[in-house]
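This section describes the prediction task in plain terms. A model, or a person checking by hand, is given the sequence of a single protein chain and must write out its three-dimensional structure as a string of C-alpha cells. No templates, partner chains or ligands are provided. The sample shown here is typical of the held-out split.
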Amino acid sequence: MVNRSIILLPVLFAVSVAAVVLSAPDADSVAVKKPADGIQQALDAFAAGRFNRAERLAVEAADAGTDGSWRARLIVASVRHRAGRYVRAEKSYRRFLSQCQSPSEREYAMEQIRRCRSAAAGQVRTVSASEMLTADRRAKLSKVDNLIHIESSEHFVVRARNSDLAKLLVKQAEIALARICRIVLAGQVYPHSVSIYVWPDVAEYRKHARSAPEWSGGGFSLRQDKTGGFVRRIDLTQLGEGGKFDASILDRILPHEMCHLVLAEFFGDAPCPLALNEGMAMLAEARVDNSRITLAGAAVAGEKKIPLRRLLTINRCKSDNAAVFYAESFSVTAYLHGRMTPRQFHEMLVHIKTGCPLDEAVQRAMYVPRDDEFLKRLTKAWEAETLRQWQFLKVLEE
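The expected answer:
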C-alpha cells in the first residue's frame, strides 16, 4: 500500500516537530534559543507541505555545524519518516539523539524510531494466497464433490464440497483473523469459533445465505440460538463466472466478511459509521486495491466527492454513488489507521462505541485538546493525502 505513516495531521505534526526543533537545550542566552534562518525556512516548508524543500534546507542547516544546527536533524528525519523512507529516517533520528540531552525530546525521538521500525517491517510484501495458485491448483479448486468435506482449526470449522479448498480456507481464515485482530482489537485474542460454509455456486449461496445481499459473493451472520448462545457464520461462493474457482474469496471476501463479523460483535447495538465499518473491512483484505485509491483521489479532485462530514453520516449506500462511497471509506480509514498506533486506533473505536462522533473519538484517543474545528482540519489533511496518493499512482501508471 501507499505509505501508511504515523502523522495524524501534517499541520499538527509540523507544530510538534517545531516545538522540539525550536526549543534550545539550555537557556544561556536568547541568541542560543533562536534557530538559524535555514532551520526556520525548513520548518516553514515542512508546515506548507513542501517536503523536498524542507529536507534540503534542513540537511544544509544541519551540516553547517553552527550552534544548535544539529536540531535540524529532526526535520530531516520527519520528512523521511513521512515519505516512507523508514531506514534513513531512523538514522536521522539517531543522529539527532546523539546530541540531544533533553529527556522529553529523547523520548519523542525514540518513539519515532520504534514507529519507523514497525512501519518498515510492514513494508515487506507478502504474496497473497491467490497469487500462489497455479493453473493446475485453480483447476483442482474448481471441482465440486458430492460429499461435504470438513476441516477445523482453533477458531474455524469449514464445510466445502472440495477437500483441498476446505484445507486452504481454514488456513487462510486464521491468517485473516490474526490480521483483523491487529487492526480492530489491537492484538487482543478472538475467543470464539466461526462456521464457514462454502456453496458451489451463486444459486446455492443465495438459497442458504438468505440475509446476504443478492449481489454479494459472501456474507456473515451473528445470531442467538435457542440456548442464548451466539452462532457466528460466514457463507462463501466457490465458483465464479464460467464455473471456475473464484480466488477472490481467499484474499478479499473471506477477510472482508470476517472483519464485519468481528466488528458486529465488538460494537453490539452501538452505532458505528458505515464508512468506518466498510473501511476497516476493506483494510482487512489481503491486498490493497489501488483502484479504490485512484477513485477516491479522482472524486476528491472532481465533482463526485462525498464530503467527509456527510460520508460519516451515511447509513445506507445508494447505487449511484456506491463506488465513490467505498473508495472514500477505505481511503479515510486507511489514513486514520496509518497515523495512529494500534492502541490509539482501538481506543478510537472504543470511544465511538460509547457514542462519540469520529472526530471527538480521534481527539480523545490521541489526547489532543478538544477543537471544534478538528473535523475541518482532518478533512483538509485527509483530502490532501488522498490527492497525493492519487497523483503518485498516476505517475506510476504513465
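For orientation: Residues 1-16, 21-35 have pLDDT under 50 and may be disordered.
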